[in-house]
Each structure stands twice: as structure tokens, then as C-alpha cells.
Structure prediction request, 333 residues.
Amino acid sequence: MKNVLSCVQPTGDLHLGNYFGAVQNWVRIQESYKCYYGVVDYHSMTMPYNPAQLRENTWKMAFYLLACGIKPENVFIQSQIPEHVELSWILSCTTSYGELTRMTQFKDKTDQLHETDKDAFVSLGLFAYPVLQAADILIYHADYVPVGKDQEQHLELSRNIAQRFNHQFGKEYFVHPEPLFTETPKILSPADPTRKMSKSLGEKHYINLFGEEDRIRKQIKSAVTDTGETTAGEMSAGVKNLFELLRACNSMEAHNSLMADYNAGALRYSDLKEAVANAVVGLVNPFRERLAELQADKKNVKTQVLESSAEIRKRAQQTLKEVREISGLTSGR
Ligand code: AMP
Ligand code: TRP
Prediction:
């Protein structure tokens, strides 16, 4: 069986965009591959953060993944497996300074920090982050990495690092991980459908996967339909997004009948919004219920995640043992 690895940063909330763009696919492919899904808390230290919040968000994200249908044995918390950091150091010595300076996400995040404070502190961790990501991937010999297009450059770097390591030590040791881009819809912000649904834009710009039904209905009801930029005869981005949501929720009957209304020039936006709200609520209600069950059994669930991390750690330790041998570090531990 081929190995799949993907990771998510513990950002606090999971929204519909994350679900349709990533997590749904992670759940599906569990049947076909040996899957490793990490909540990467070391990565979240690269931007300013609060320690108590980080720990809380890490657990929150692990619970969210389980509530969405990720199998407990496939989940790990990155900092439970410090070998990721050790491998990251070793790989950083086969990564050039120049290639890291070409990472566009580093530039974006630095700009983001400087937007609020022109003297903002930019850490070495933020700069080196793609090497840690390569370690996450290579440590489990992942063949496939399901990621969004925004991670394409980091994945390419992971492949280059693997190749260079193999070349430097004259051994085809690391596999070359391939991205697994699947057909996933891009979900737009209900409040501003010219932009991607995203947490960083603010609360009204994303629909929380574990949000209360009332709030979700309200958000969809007030979704922007006319952006004022469309030419006659062209569907506006907001309306397109609502149809996209219906399709993503697999409500094809409602989708097709409302699309027929649209084509006949008889679509009422209130009907479309009602259908979308029903579809989204129908999708997320079971997730929220499942989350409540997990939370009611918090202690056991946490123990389970720690145990699966310990189990997954054995795989990482094996890799490190081999890497230490190959790269000339002392063995015997
Ligand atoms: P982020 O935490 O924003 O980096 O998102 C993590 C992953 O969720 C991305 O790599 C995408 O695969 C997916 N994702 C995030 N936002 C959206 C969106 N608006 N539409 C579709 N997929 C998304
Ligand atoms: N960098 C990814 C993000 O910001 C998260 C991530 C860390 C990741 N390590 C990974 C994704 C390994 C895929 C594989 O979304």
C-alpha cells in the first residue's frame, strides 16, 4: 500500500473551504492508502502565538479531524514526534539558502507581519519552515501528499531535498513525494465572493464547520449575491459560489432545479439561499454531534490520539535510525 501524508496547522477553526478543499478528501482516501495525518503544532510556532492557545488549538484540531471521519489511528500530533525536528535539521544541511529565499509563502507571511508592524520580528523558524515540512513528508516515506495548490512550491522543494540527500549520500533512500491534487471546489467568502473563504479575512468570511445552525443559516441568508461587477447575462461570483456549495454538499436535485430557474430568469435568491442553508446544515449537523460525543469522552480521546502518535512515532524513529547511519552521525542509540 502506498503512503499518504498530509498535515494541518492548528489554526482554531475548520471552515467549509478546508473541508471541501482538503479534509473530505483525506477521509475518502483512507481506504486506499496507508495514511498519516498530522496536526502540526511546531509549524504554528513560526508566527506570533500564545502558548496556552496553541495547546488548546492543537487538541481542538485533532478532535475536529476525528469528528470529520479521520480514523484515530491515522492522526498524530507533530510535537509528540520530535524526530520531525531532528530530520529537519539534517535536511536543512542539504537545502540551500537560495532556494528557501524563493519560497513565496515566506514573502507573503513576512509582508503580512510587516503590514501591522514595520519592525515585526521575523523568525528563522518562519524561513526554515519548508524544511520542516519536507521532514514531515519524508520521515514517513510518503508517496502522495494531498495538498492545495498553495503548497505546490513547498512540495517541489521536498522533492528537491529528497533528491539531493539521495545524491549526496549515493543511496536512493527517500522516495520522491508527489502531490495529490484532486478536483476540489474553491469555496469563496459569503461576505465577499471575490475572495477565497479564509479565516485570515475575519469571522464573517468563513463558515465554521462546527458552527451553530442559527449562525450558519444567518451567514448564508446574508451572503452577497450581486457584486456589482458582472456584465449582463453572466452569473455573479456570489451566486456561482452558492451553486458551488450545493454541488459540494451533493444536493444535486436542488442544484439542478434552481439552475433551471436561473436559466429561465426566474431564480429567487431567497430560494437558492434556503436550499444552500439546508444543504450545509444537513452536512455539518452530524459533524457537530460527533464532536460533542468526542468531547464528552475527552480524556479517552486524548489518550487515543497520544497512543496513535506514539505508534506512528515508531515509524519516524526507524527512519531517523537509517538517516543517522547514512549521514554519518554516531549510531548506537
Ligand atoms: P489553510 O489553513 O487556509 O492553509 O487551508 C488548508 C487547506 O484547506 C488548503 O491547502 C486547501 O486545500 C483548503 N482550503 C482552504 N481554504 C479553501 C477554500 N476557500 N476553498 C477550497 N479549499 C480551501
Ligand atoms: N504548510 C502546510 C499549510 O500551511 C501544512 C503542512 C505542514 C503540510 N507540513 C505538511 C502539508 C506536510 C502537507 C504535508 O497548510
Summary: Residues 5-7, 9, 40, 43, 133, 136-137, 145, 147, 151 surround tryptophan (ligand 2) (CB under 6 Å). The chain has twelve helices and five strands. The domain at 3-184+298-327 is CATH 3.40.50.620 (Rossmann fold).
